[in-house]
Amino acid sequence: xxxxxxxxxxxxxxxxxxxxxxxxxxxxxxxxxxxxxxxxxxxxxxxxxxxxxxxxxxxxxxxxxxxxxxxxxxxxxxxxxxxxxxxxxxxxxxxxxxxxxxxxxxxxxxxxxxxxxxxxxxxxxxxxxxxxxxxxxxxxxxxxxxxxxxxxxxxxxxxxxxxxxxxxxxxxxxxxxxxxxxxxxxxxxxxxxxxxxxxxxxxxxxxxxxxxxxxxxxxxxxxxxxxxxxxxxxxxxxxxxxxxxxxxxxxxxxxxxxxxxxxxxxxxxxxxxxxxxxxxxxxxxxxxxxxxxxxxxxxxxxxxxxxxxxxxxxxxxxxxxxxxxxxxxxxxxxxxxxxx
Length: 340
Ligand SMILES: Cc1cc2nc3c(=O)[nH]c(=O)nc-3n(C[C@H](O)[C@H](O)[C@H](O)COP(=O)(O)OP(=O)(O)OC[C@H]3O[C@@H](n4cnc5c(N)ncnc54)[C@H](O)[C@@H]3O)c2cc1C
What we know:
By secondary structure, the chain is an alpha+beta fold. It contains 8 helices and 20 strands. Flavin-adenine dinucleotide (FAD) is lined by residues 16, 50-57, 70, 91, 116-119, 121-123, 125-126, 128-130, 165, 169, 177-179, 228, 231, 236-238, 338.
């Protein structure tokens, strides 16, 4: 079968920053049967940029070669053992709709990740996380094909080498893979993760004394709708920088030198996570605007496009922010979205 190919397509509505960029060749991958023909087009017109929902991308120029828009749909229960259920979703499924579907099946595990924009296929790419849960906590395996030679491969969790907002797919060489389907291990009797005080407070405010997975999802959605800027109203890609992970002794020294600096538990006992938002705000960037590129007025971590900023202008602003945090705190900020 042949995928749909469109020429000279504006990507402005296909990335949540809403920046203008043009795809010379946009291949819409709507069915698994289209994959071989799509790979052939990629081989004829390299390189390939795989596009999901465009909510973790900053396009700073027209992507060369072929843009492969993943629109593969489908989700199903694969196996059930006691309370444990294995589910699979195609890469093009909308993430939030998929989480809603799992909850409708009576399955918990992904509730804290409700309302994260984007596709199922991108969820392992940066090991999406929110409110104390990451995709790796429920991840089973994924199917991918190599854009280089069409080889099919199954990745389990150790192959993905998940890290904080990171995986093998975000590292050098990782972009050669087209993820086509992802499987998750969910539960009919999930152990809810309510470590975030904000989540517990929201459940209390909603009058829920003994929550189930759906209550947690409702609380997460309520917090996110209240707090996070909606890309439909103002272009953004969520958090632009990761919270830096440093060794604990360094975090203690930074806190001693900067009273009030938040320090969170890190990825292990010997490190700690710093608040990128706090440092950016202390450097005076919150609400800053340079033309149409800016920093959100309530979220120092969220870079925004007020209308017609280019990706290059947003990237230039991000670099100025990075430099000022480096100068003032000696801390290196790492970008979260993928820059093209
Ligand atoms: C308002 C807002 C809030 C957000 N909140 C969070 C949050 O709480 N936690 C969090 O972790 N992230 C968050 N994000 C970031 C984003 O939603 C996630 O990273 C999401 O997984 C991106 O999905 P996508 O389909 O839009 O990916 P895209 O932006 O299309 O792509 C991102 C990267 O993944 C690659 N990719 C996409 N699909 C595939 C595929 N099928 N195969 C191989 N590679 C692929 C792309 O090539 C690119 O490198 C937020 C973004 C916004 C705009």
